[in-house]
Inverse folding.
């Protein structure tokens, strides 16, 4: 670009507006750190089980050149809260009218059923249309079992889901909803 006096300016960065706000996973991780720090709950992101088949060593340490998934992962997060086992998945979509069920793998749905059958608390946190919903695992499974749809309508999320408001500390207090939905009924 030429400015007055024929001064040329170069090296401008292209502004990327994606990820301006925190994504869902970052909000949950920050919230979980708060829960641990305040001794409210112990909930952690589960690592994906990866095997290393080839690595090289450099002056900066070991670099993985080739790897594989050892086993299908289950759900994103697990832990304990008020003596109850918790397991949940976090998902985001840019779609406006429905949430694609293809975002869930069959082994994840089977695992959710097992957690529920063993008395654990299991749910999904979904971010859609700048809103964050907690959907009970039981409701998700029932929806899938009773419908032939390939997506969950946004209206269903608004009807069956519990809105989680973003705040300062914790960033996404989903345990407030767990208290209301699961623990106050026990």
């Amino acid at each position: 670009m030429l400015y007055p006096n024929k001064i040329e300016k170069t090296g401008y960065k292209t502004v990327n507006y994606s990820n301006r706000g925190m994504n869902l996973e970052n909000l949950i991780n920050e919230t979980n750190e708060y829960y641990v720090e305040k001794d409210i709950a112990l909930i952690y992101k589960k690592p994906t089980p990866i095997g290393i088949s080839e690595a090289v060593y450099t002056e900066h340490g070991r670099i993985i050149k080739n790897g594989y998934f050892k086993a299908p992962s289950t759900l994103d997060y697990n832990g304990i809260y008020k003596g109850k086992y918790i397991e949940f998945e976090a998902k985001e979509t840019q779609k406006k009218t429905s949430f694609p069920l293809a975002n869930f793998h069959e082994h994840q749905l089977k695992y959710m059923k097992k957690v529920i059958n063993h008395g654990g608390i299991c749910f999904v946190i979904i971010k859609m249309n700048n809103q964050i919903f907690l959907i009970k695992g039981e409701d998700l499974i029932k929806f899938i079992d009773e419908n032939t749809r390939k997506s969950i309508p946004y209206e269903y999320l608004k009807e069956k889901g519990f809105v989680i408001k973003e705040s300062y500390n914790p960033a996404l207090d989903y345990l407030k909803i767990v208290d209301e939905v699961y623990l106050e009924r026990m």
Notes: The chain is about 30% helix and 35% strand. Confidence is low (pLDDT under 50) at residues 12-21. Helices lie at 24-37, 106-117, 137-146, 154-160, 174-183.
